[in-house]
Please model this.
Amino acid sequence: MPAFPIHRDAATAAFLDGAAAGRFLIVRDQSTGAHHAPQFDVSIDPERYALVPAAGTGEIVSWSVVHRRSPDGPARTVVGIVQLDEGPWWWTEISGVDPSSDLIGTRVRVAFARPDGETDAEAETIPYFTVKT
Model:
């Protein structure tokens, strides 16, 4: 599903290790119980903030369609913002949806994949969302 490869660095290593293991990690504030998006820098206070597995479910709060060319002709990819059940928002590709319909409020769940046709051995497994059944 992902259209292009990404590569890890020190800031993304733990998140990408989780994705490779099929876990969508978000940040939890151990003091308040609040959750933050995975991009939140836990190194500012590692005793207070920790990466924890999210439920991996949420709902679409905004979306758009990207029109592109593929080897098979014109293609449409849905991208959007998912509000995770824990609260943070995640910008993502959304598969298995009709790009012509109103997707606001659609329940989705996380899935993981490497980019289609990717031969780069260092390309990472990354999360995307699909309709929850």
